[in-house]
């Protein structure tokens, strides 16, 4: 049997958060290149529009939006349906990381900021998307982003971030079980260290080299090295995978 690289992705409708981030951007470009249509969500309107203008295929949709007001999530999904007719795949990369020097310097605001974006918004947008996927009767894919921190627990001042990412793994498993009868699969991608603005925040070159030295493959991931796994999870090749957390860490963690 010929191996179909598009694997059902052509013409699929994708809602992608964090679309102009390091990893999100590569995911958007990759979906565009296989003929999917992408509704790109991120905070900065100019950046979202520039991304959509750059993408192959389409037409795509620029949706500047801060994911925190969860009351707006249903309307966000409706805009995708109005533009594309269906919603087939939700990919949630939007997240923030606040690194503090130690656990003792993590404030309540730090906790709420990271939980509101990384975990709370991810749950409610998944809920809004799943409602739509259930009602359209064709199933769907939800792909969440966790982090190696879900497993390690983070370090010092990044424990609050790690807790949001632990929540993503638990939530992914619970949603996978709950939504399976509606033919909606839910999986998580778990990057190790990826060379993006988030990874570099608060890290100097020596700290970055220290991270690279712990990785068996010897270097941080390029953001594009995450995109293929997201496409795979959205494709026909992954139609029997649900509740999984895919470790993409160059061997930094092994599980
Ligand atoms: N870079 C890494 O090493 C690494 C490691 C583990 C996990 N991750 C995860 O991968 C995902 C992508 O990370 P990245 O490295 O590309 O980060 P990034 O900072 O480059 O991109 C994150 C994007 O999310 C957007 N965003 C933040 N808050 C938002 C909000 N309230 N509403 C809408 N958009 C918002 C940002 O504007 C940004 O474009 C994240 O979930 C992150 O936790 C990254």
TrEMBL record:
SUPFAM superfamilies found in the cross-reference section: NAD(P)-binding Rossmann-fold domains (SSF51735)
Q: Give the Pfam families listed for this entry.
A: adh_short_C2
Q: Which UniProt keywords apply?
A: Oxidoreductase
Recorded GO MF terms: oxidoreductase activity, acting on the CH-OH group of donors, NAD or NADP as acceptor
Instruction: State the family it belongs to.
Output: Belongs to the short-chain dehydrogenases/reductases (SDR) family.
Q: Which PANTHER family did the record assign?
A: 3-OXOACYL-[ACYL-CARRIER-PROTEIN] REDUCTASE, SHORT-CHAIN DEHYDROGENASES/REDUCTASES FAMILY MEMBER
Name recorded for this polypeptide: 2-deoxy-D-gluconate 3-dehydrogenase
């Amino acid at each position: 049997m010929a191996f179909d690289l598009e694997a059902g992705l052509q013409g699929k409708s994708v809602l992608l958060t964090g679309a102009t981030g390091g990893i999100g951007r590569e995911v958007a470009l990759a979906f565009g290149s296989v003929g999917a249509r992408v509704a790109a969500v991120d905070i900065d309107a100019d950046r979202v529009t520039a991304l959509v203008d750059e993408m192959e295929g389409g037409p795509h949709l620029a949706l500047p939006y801060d994911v925190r007001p969860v009351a707006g999530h249903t309307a966000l999904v409706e805009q995708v349906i109005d533009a594309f007719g269906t919603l087939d795949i939700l990919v949630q990369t939007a997240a923030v990381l606040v690194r503090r020097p130690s656990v003792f310097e993590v404030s309540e605001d730090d906790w709420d900021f990271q939980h509101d974006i990384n975990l709370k918004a991810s749950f409610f947008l998944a809920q809004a998307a799943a409602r739509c996927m259930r009602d359209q009767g064709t199933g769907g894919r939800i792909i969440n982003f966790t982090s190696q921190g879900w497993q390690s627990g983070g370090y010092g001042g990044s424990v609050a971030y790690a807790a949001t990412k632990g929540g993503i793994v638990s939530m992914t498993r619970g949603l996978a079980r709950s939504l399976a009868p509606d033919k909606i699969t839910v999986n998580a991608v778990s990057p190790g260290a990826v060379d993006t603005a988030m990874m570099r925040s608060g890290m100097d070159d020596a700290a970055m080299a220290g991270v690279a030295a712990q990785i068996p493959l010897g270097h941080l991931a390029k953001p594009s090295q995450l995109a293929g796994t997201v496409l795979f999870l959205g494709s026909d090749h992954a139609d029997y995978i649900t509740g999984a957390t895919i470790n993409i860490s160059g061997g930094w963690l092994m599980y």
